[in-house]
Amino acid sequence: MKRGVFITFEGIEGSGKSTQARLLLDWLVLHKMPCIMTREPGGTEVGEAIRSILLNPAYRRLSAKTELLLMLAARAQLTSEVVLPAIGDGKIVISDRFSDSTFAYQVSGRDLPLRPTMLFNRFATCGLKPDLTFLVDIPVEKGLGRAKQQGADRFEAEDVSYHQKVRQGYLRLAKRARGRIKLLDGNQAIDEIQGTIRERTEALLLKRGYKP
Questions:
Q1: Which of 111, 137, 106 is nearest to 11 (CA)?
Q2: Which residues of 30-57 are buried (b: 16+ CB within 10 A; e: fewer)?
Q3: Peptide bond into 85 cis (omega under 30)
Q4: Which whole-number Å values give the CA distances from 34 to 10, 39, 52, in the listed order?
Q5: Which domains does the chain have, with CATH numbers?
């Protein structure tokens, strides 16, 4: 059986990445492709419990190192319990966030050291990397305006300067990994963005032997 495909969606708060991920899943289901969708932090019973801690605005005193280790713990569980088995079964796995979020939010946003974070992340993911990543980019003020309409979680409650650092971290990643990361303009219409996503995804799937 052929190895599955791992596609991730990234972006700052309110970028619209989750909407785009769900639309891609709907398109794959419509074409009867073997696929699943998950999210970070979360995606497993253990991961969702960790998510409830990480996003709880009551835990504002959570240290940057604790935040990183909790993220990696949730990712380790998701990788071993969900992602690797699904890829092994030849499925297309869509994840709303993965390792790139750690480098944007914890390394760039929290100023944690890059090298040990990379080592810890590699350990948590068993060295797994996405085959394709869609980064939906949008100005911070616009993204936060969208996100806070339904009440702010612990990350959304951070000041604008933190989110600017997160966005810049994402953009640096996009420059370093142009072959894997497709940068998308989040100011475009939802359907226009989704069209680009489907076109890029279809090309990858055809290359891997899938026929949507």
A1: 137
A2: eeebebbbbbbbbbbebbeebbebbbee
A3: no
A4: 22, 18, 30
A5: 5-207 (3.40.50.300)
Q: Reply yes or no on whether the pLDDT at 151 is more than 90.
A: no
> Would you state the pLDDT for residue 92?
98
Mean per-residue pLDDT, 100-115: 98
In angstroms, rounded to a whole number, what is the distance separating the alpha carbons of residues 11 and 138? 8
Say which residues have a Cβ less than 8 Å from residue 166's Cβ, sequence separation at least 6: 12, 104, 105, 108, 109
How confident is the model at residue 39, as a pLDDT?
98
Rounded Cα gap, residues 19 and 15, in angstroms: 9
What confidence category does residue 149 fall into, taking pLDDT thresholds of 50, 70 and 90?
A: low
Q: What is the CA radius of gyration of the chain?
A: 16
Query: Which tens digit of pLDDT belongs to each residue from 70-83?
Result: 999 999 999 999 99
Per-residue pLDDT, 150: 63
Residue count of the chain: 212
> Strand, helix or coil at 133?
strand
Task: Write down the residue that tokens 């946003």 correspond to.
Answer: 109
Distance, in Å, from the CA atom of 26 to the CA atom of 17, rounded to the nearest integer, reads 14
Q: Are 96 and 4 in contact (CB under 8 A)?
A: no
CA–CA gap between residue 107 and residue 59 (Å, rounded): 20
Q: What is the torsion angle, in degrees rounded to the nearest 10, for the CA atoms of residue 69, residue 73, residue 75 and residue 78?
A: -170
pTM of the model: 0.96
